[in-house]
Amino acid sequence: MNLDVINRTQLIGDVINLISGTSFVMFGLVALVIAVIRRRASGVLAIFLLGIWTILYGSQRFNDCSLLLSLEPPWMVVGAHVMRAATTYLVLVIAFLTFRELTVGLMRRLLGLLALAAFVIFVFGFGHYLLYGQEDWLIRYNQILATVGLVVLLPFLASPAMQRKYGVLQDRGVLLVGYTVFGLEALAVNLLRPLGYRFYTFIDDLGFAAFILAIGYVAMKGVYTSERRLASIENELAIARQLQFSILPTAAPEVRNLRVAAVYEPMTAVAGDFYEYLQVDDHHAGFLLADVSGHGVPAALIASMIKVAVQSVASSASDPGELLKRLHAILAGQLRGQFVSVAYLWIDSETRIARYAAAGHPPLLWWHASDSTIARVANNGLLFGVPLESDFPMCELSISAGDRFLLYTDGLSEPENSSGEPFGDHCIERIFRDNPSRPAAELSLLLLDAVRSWPPAGTAQQDDITFLLIDVL
Domain spanning 3-235 has what CATH number? Predict the structure, then answer.
């Protein structure tokens, strides 16, 4: 286009397009930056989509600027026409997806269907442009779909009852005002333009700006509320973590000829693993380990219940089978669908006798110092929480100086390496064999380092890791 033939009216329109296009693109970029910074917050996807929507709208204004196109080389002009053909259809897809993030239930599904329909129109409309160069082949259907969307949103925004049922909005009134301004502007322009009235594009831009600002305000308010709720939850979890650690033993029992080390590594802030010591005197002590199914707060609450229940059955400390039976009777009506595996080892360091029983727990690993081998002691009854009667058979073991016992939850044995091979008993046995003289405290840290480095680098911990290592001196 020759710059000499651009008239005053067209020049004013181009300047307005440049200003509004730049403003909308900058607003969109700010929204994207906010979405990236606040990516952990619930509802931030609406902010991200709003940024994309606004950038697409702003780019349309650049593509409508004759002055800008006249200054560009031919290949950029072609690119501008391609972008205009794409954004004409694509902007409606993003608009529906943005509103979808502000709704739930039936309204969310309906907006999802409208977004899908808009995407189909985009594919065929833009594809037709690429083949035949016709930009507005399906533009009428696109406008009809946009009108349908406005009609669908009107009762949702106007009715408090529908908003409570289908919305996640923090301030419906602000969005309703923005919608009203945008709707009235669109209605006036669409009615008066066919009658010959001319409007600068800034009239459209003002209506759209009111709408976008209202959506942005509502979405950001939702993100802010979500962040406050998240901060409150994290604070409560920190307190719960402190409370959970407070119910665990603060020191190993002082039993003659025994050295005990404990490792407790929750996967999340709070865990479903639990361990306890039941020391009777200088020669007798019991060691209990439990693993509640699941993770997080529900599992941690049950672990706390086990703490209280164990204290009430401490009189049966020397009889593992009876202790588990009484513990099961106390917890049976409280688990509510949760399952608990439990292992209990009783050691008499004076007579060198150990007794063991378990409920659906991984086997006790018993390292024999005399021949450097590991035995798996698997005296198991049913898991706590299984609605069946169960006995918990007990076995008695004769122990010797140098022997070691390992009570552990499956978080120690189940991590897999890059080949899909679990850490398992064979790795534990190798570590025991290679470090026969290391004290329990050092060996427990070595074992923890080994299981942490077993999965591929960067793999997050998949389960709580808890184990008790007991050396017979």
Answer: 1.20.1070
